[in-house]
Each structure stands twice: as structure tokens, then as C-alpha cells.
Design brief:
Part of the core SMN complex. By secondary structure, the chain is mainly alpha-helical. Helices cover about 50% and strands about 0% of the residues. Helix 9 packs antiparallel against helix 10 and helix 11 packs antiparallel against helix 12.
Length: about 240
Amino acid sequence: MKSDVEELMPRLLPVETCEIVEDLNLNEPPRNPQEYLRQVQLEASLCPDVVVAKIDPKKLRKKQTVNVSLTGCQAAPPGFSPSIKWQRQQVSNFSEIRQPKQDAEEQWKRFCLGENVYLNSPTNDAGGENPGLDYVKVGFPPFLSIVSRLNQATVSAVLEYLINWFEENGFVPQLGRWLYALLACLEKPLLPEAHSLIRQLARRSSEVRANLENQEDERLSPLNLMICLVARYFDQNDLADKED
């Protein structure tokens, strides 16, 4: 006949009832799966069927106080606050970013690189209409809160979008930051698609590096880093730079 506990929580695994428990030591790790299950059975048998919480009535009568600050933001000094037109535009842009179509290559390129780079439009801050950093224009950095939510399929897709853009354009800081973050998200062993992509990235980086005019070019270090990570970390040794 089943006990009341077994009626409420039926056994999921067939475990023989442990009659002799002297040989079990709950402080030592189990030596096999059967011994593990016997330890669980023993621990369960030592638990009381009914547990009554001890509540101090005095604590229940204690009044709780919640401090809520009713003060608003401090007023901006004269000339520091943005215009209503600018605020509405940022809200509109932000609303679009919150609902991106993740399968759209164009939107991902705009998101990572920014409109200034993607559309090859000059930066225009005239008129003081942009007192803060406009990520829609300059590109969103690869925040951990963003890249940590990307699955491997999305990581490979965005990596492909950016490398395709890199094949037709030059190297910019926004691109380097996102390529580095996406490489950090790639899981090993690599899928065939990712394997091909990173080799394409290394080759393109070497092509751009070969056309630099001097060693002081700020693009040299990130280009070397892309080649190094692909070749040394992801074991594409045939692409590695050799010592001079």
C-alpha cells in the first residue's frame, strides 16, 4: 500500500527500498548511480512529513515603511536641454530599434554601423540639435545585453552581413568592435558556414592591410587582431602571420 507521500509524489525511478542504511554515508559522494538514488531515498526519509513554520507574531505587527522620492529630474542649465523636435525624433528612432526585423540585412548593418557609415553621409551636428550621442547615426556598440541574447544562427548571420559590407567598403571602428564581439560569441567547433566566414574575414583584413600607406595607420592594429584571432584562436594556421 502506498504512503500518503507516495500518493502525492509518485516515484519516477524504480528504486528498491533501502532497509539497511548503515553503509551509506551522506557526507561522501556516491560511487555509482544506484548508491546516489539510495542516498536521495535516505535523505527523503529523514525529512518530516509535515513542517510547521515558526512565525514571530511581533514581526507581523511591525509597520513597514517605504520611502518614495517624489522629486523629479534636476532642470537642465540654460542651453543644455534638447529641443522637443530632437526628443521626438529620438523616441521615434528608438521605437524602430526596439522592433527590428532580425532577418533584414540592411537593418542589421544600420544598427551596427550607424547611418553615417552605412549611408556614407557626413556628420552634421550644426545647430546644437544633438547634445547627446545618437546611436542611430553612429551605430550601436555591441553591448553585452545585446550580443549575449544572440543565438549561434543570428551570430553567423550578422557576421555574414558585416563581412559582406567589409568586402565592398573599408575598415571603420564600428565594424571592428562588432566583428570582435561576434567572434567572441562563436562556439567551437565551428559550423561550416562560420568556418568559411572567418576565413573570408581574415583574407579581406589582409587585403586592406596591404594597402595601408604607413605603420601609424590606426586601422593596422585592429586588422592584425582580426587575422590573429582567426588564424591562432580558431586554428586557421595557414592564414597566420609569420614573424619577420
